[in-house]
Write a structure and sequence with these properties.
The complex is a heterodimer of chains A (420) and B (125).
Chain A (H helix, E strand, L loop, with lengths): L4 H7 L5 H16 L5 E3 L2 E4 L9 H10 L7 E4 L16 H17 L22 E3 L2 H11 L9 H8 L1 E3 L13 E5 L6 H15 L4 E4 L7 H14 L26 E4 L1 H10 L10 E9 L1 H11 L9 E6 L1 H9 L3 H6 L3 E3 L29 E3 L2 H11 L3 E3 L2 H10 L9
Chain B lengths: L3 E8 L33 E4 L8 H11 L5 E4 L5 H9 L4 E2 L15 E5 L4 E4 L1
The chains are: A alpha/beta (420), B alpha/beta (125).
């Protein structure tokens, strides 16, 4: 692999031990994938340090203690507790304290502490042609498909990209790998973010880790719908990029579908099947209604505030609206939090049901006193959340549109999305 | 991922997901879709056709390493996704990818194997 003078100096320890280790890891990664050289990274969305996994926060605090610094613009991914309002979610105090230690370490490292799966709604928007790294698959797909940045589905090494400002040139950092592998023709009628998560989920199941070229949507989806469709694909498959002509930079609205690639048809039945798959709880068998996966945008907060204004959440039902800190403060300035809270719902940041102490698939340090509660069921307005609630909280789920999820929370009975 | 390693061969025909298919505390395979269900990967040279993609794979490899239940090495017919490679480098677990498809058929389960991540060497002891 060709290295720049600066890369070599970093590898020789001229920038300190943490940077040397980061560059050494990136070189090994590049060699594994036969990268010719490194690219400059303009943005990295990095690991929060997860308090629900033993030793995981140590990965971040150790770097800070060694004096590591970030050398590019960095934002932090979702965490395991709301660090400002952890009591509201019933998080064990020691879990919250450990999560706060990760937050302090990130401040020392120089990363923006937004702790979200939607940093692009918190002002972190890599531009077209910019190379980026991301530990969150939803950020990867939004960056590649909507913003036109270049990113792989990374793991911990997004941290190393942030520390060095470099990343090996392989995968979706190469133009020749950013070409559609499937033509997905949609005849299903979809509307609203929940439908778009279901649509994405259906597409991801068909194309696995391919790049779908999507036609048949009719109207151009809004940004929340594009976001929803992307996270759906990244959840059921390993999709890192989709192509929607007229939206994805480099593909004009009249771009022709690729020739000689597999064709996939997605009709109404496929959407209904996804909803059915994740409606496993009894109609009155939910004790938590969750809105806002991935973390809500300001536009979505307006929708939720409008749906909840003047309503009252049923007794025995908890209702969470999850968003990031930045959107939360903008929503507060707009007067959107008051109607949500007056209805008896909570606005939660930094985490979400499947990322918090409800999850049963983690390995928390026993001293933290984490005992996941027994949940009868979780009702959500996102198929991504439903998928991970099923696998990580391991309880039944119900999924319906945002408006019907609020109706369910108010009445205490599930209001399904109608088909036909 | 560089480095030498050795252990008994554990062979699988089904793609393995490091997120969800493994119990961290024991290293046991719990994923219903895996033909290794009930067996432990701890200390083995894990010989796989493929890994199933998950961006969270790195964390579970690191958790296995912390618990001491990690495989000694991972040998693959294909290429793993970047997250698996990043987890392996972070956890010092050698990975050998793109082995010839006919190599697995020549390895009996439990055969002591030596591998070297730097050269890509896989050898029966």
């Amino acid at each position: 692999m060709r290295l720049s003078e600066r890369d070599r100096a970093m590898l020789d320890g001229a920038f300190g031990e943490p940077a040397r280790r980061a560059m050494d890891g990136l070189v090994q990664l590049g060699e594994a994938f036969d990268a010719s050289d490194m690219v400059d990274i303009g943005y990295a969305h990095i690991h929060a340090g997860m308090a629900m996994y033993g030793g995981d926060v140590d990965l971040i605090t150790a770097l800070a203690a060694e004096g590591a610094t970030m050398r590019t613009v960095v934002s932090t991914n979702i965490a395991n507790a709301d660090m400002a309002r952890w009591q509201q979610t019933g998080a064990p105090p020691r879990l919250a304290a450990l999560q706060q230690r990760a937050e302090a370490a990130h401040k020392a490292l120089g990363g923006a502490t937004c702790f979200t799966c939607t940093p692009y709604f918190a002002g972190h928007r890599p531009t077209a042609g910019m190379h980026a790294a991301s530990i969150e698959s939803g950020v990867t797909i939004f960056a590649n498909s909507v913003l036109g940045a270049l990113a792989n589905r990374d793991g911990f090494f997004a941290v190393y990209a942030g520390m060095t400002g470099r990343y090996p040139r392989f995968g979706l950092h190469l133009p020749e790998n950013r070409v559609p592998t499937h033509h997905v023709a949609i005849s299903a009628a979809v509307s609203g973010t929940t439908d778009f998560t279901a649509l994405g989920y259906a597409i991801g199941a068909e194309v696995t880790d391919g790049i779908p070229f999507v036609t048949g949507l009719g109207a151009v989806p809004d940004e929340d719908e594009l976001d929803a469709m992307g996270v759906g694909m990244a959840t059921s498959g390993g999709v890192a990029m989709f192509v929607l002509p007229g939206v994805t930079p480099g593909f004009a609205g009249d771009a022709a579908p690729p020739a000689s690639v597999p064709q996939v048809a997605i009709g109404d039945g496929a959407i209904e099947a996804v909803y059915d798959k994740f409606c496993t709880a009894a109609v009155d068998g939910f004790d938590l209604v969750h809105l806002g996966c991935p973390h809500a945008s300001l536009a979505e907060m307006r929708v939720y505030a409008g749906l909840l204004a003047g309503r009252r959440i049923a007794d025995g039902v908890d209702c969470w609206v999850t968003t990031n800190r930045t959107v939360r403060s903008a929503a507060e300035a707009e007067g959107l939090l008051a109607p949500i809270e007056a209805a008896g719902a909570r606005v939660v940041s930094d985490t979400c049901p499947m990322s918090c102490h409800f999850a049963r698939t983690c390995s928390p340090d026993p001293s933290l006193g984490v005992t996941p509660p027994t949940l009868a069921g979780v009702l959500v307005d996102s198929v991504k959340q439903a998928h991970y609630v099923r696998d990580m909280i391991q309880c039944p789920t119900l999924v319906t549109t945002s408006a019907r999820a609020v109706e369910s929370a108010v009445t205490g009975r599930f209001v399904p999305r109608p088909f036909r | 991922m560089k480095g030498p390693a050795a252990g008994p061969a554990l062979l699988s025909d089904t793609p393995l997901s490091f997120l969800g298919d493994l119990d961290i505390a024991t290293g046991r395979v719990v994923g219903q879709g895996s033909d290794l269900i009930g067996q432990s990967v701890a200390g083995t040279v894990l010989v796989l056709r493929a890994t199933r993609g998950s961006a969270g794979a790195w964390r579970f490899l690191y958790q296995l390493k912390r618990a001491g239940t990690h495989p000694a090495a991972i040998v693959l017919e294909g290429m793993p996704d970047p997250s698996v490679v990043q987890g392996a480098i972070l956890s010092f677990i050698p990975v050998i990818a793109n082995i010839p498809a006919d190599l697995r058929a020549t390895i009996a389960p439990g055969t002591p194997l030596s591998v070297d991540g730097a050269s890509g060497m896989v050898r029966a002891e």
